[in-house]
Automatic annotation (TrEMBL):
MF-aspect GO terms: metallopeptidase activity
Highest taxon in the source lineage: Bacteria
EC number(s) given by UniProt: 3.4.24.-
Hydrolase as UniProt keyword: yes
Domain Metalloprotease TldD/E C-terminal: 235-442
Gene3D superfamilies given in the database record: PmbA/TldD superfamily
Record has DNA damage as a keyword: no
Name of this chain's protein: Metalloprotease PmbA
NCBIfam families hit by this protein: PRK11040.1
Organism (species): Alteromonas oceani
Amino acid sequence: MQIEQQLAEIQSKVADTLKLALKKGATQAEASMSKVEGISVSSRLREVENIEFTNDGGLGISVYVGKHKGSASTADLSMEALALAVEKAVDIAKYTSEDPCTGLADAELIATEFPDLDLYHPVPLDPQKAIKTAVAAESAALDYDPRITNSDGASYNANMGMRVYGNTHGINAGYTSSRYSLSCMVIASDNDDMQRDYAYTVSRDASKLDSAEAVGLEAAQCTVARLGAQKIKTATVPVLIDKQLASSLFGHYVGAISGGSLYRRSSFLLDKLGSQVFPEWLNIVERPHLKGGLASSNFDHEGVATKDMTIVDSGKLSTYLYTSYSARKLNTVTNGHAGGIHNWIVSDSGQSDAELLKTMGTGLYVTEMMGQGVNIVTGDYSRGAAGFWVENGVIQYPVHEVTIAGTLQDMFANIVAIGAERDARGSVSTGAVLLEKMKIAGA
């Protein structure tokens, strides 16, 4: 079946569901449906370990009876099943408490334009090709160095599908998308020392993935580089967070400025709109309509139109992130962030990664973090880390079993530089982040 025909059929199911909801007594309703097919292949020690085909789909319906909400879902898309799901959702709404903030997003905010964002690049789901790709990545890693003695395997994933969202304000829109990834993780041993590391690549377009050999080689090089890791003494030193990890730092910022954290009064950035949070040279913009972007979308999970936004302006907190519910709780208007953020781009200070090391001088270059020791309420930050000790801008030796600690307030305010070499394999595009100093707890 042609993809356009499938999309049209799903839109028809969504429309039928919304009509049923109104007939059953709902004053408002919204429905979304997704359909995904894909393949996942993993190998270990050059042998196929797992092959899994995916063909999933389902429809979720939320109804509003006045200010009472009820939700239900079904994987059966027959008219009988849709009618039953609607009936259950309406029944549930009768028993939920009235909430003045519930309901659809305001009609004037709903998306009406749906340009092609180049998110769909289908390829045949060929298990033999997938196996060959995974094994090639793992082989490249295993053949790199005799000290690589074991493997946690390589994995190739391909997913193609579509999503449709509709509500009783009139939107019934859908889009197709694809996502491909390849990863590899190996283990190296040298006497009693054993280390592991990984590499991965991801894209909407399979032809733009890094080659299997490149992924395997990167995994091997990173793993071997960690052999001989030492413990270091407790100190307060500059810290360079690798670009692969830097997005997590801004992920904590996302959590702190999200409407849910704000109306619950559980964020260290509560009532800080317009305040200086980052250095004056740092800016963050959101670009939801980037062609082929991993977080691109014309509308959020409530059908609200997405738009270009300035998130941080000259280091100042210029906006919070609202859903319609959190916005009403805070007496403001949603800005299209139901379901997450849409392609954040963090400004950089122009240096290469090598230049960032020179700027840091002596300190810790962090390439791995462990644990979840981050408190969004207070800003307290403490995570296990591993990486490399640097002196005079030159990497000296790998280190492990350390903890980096501070507060997000100080970390954000004391960003010295952000590298120009970016990692854009997610919803945040950023370079490595150099922090003026952090407490390092070691031996």
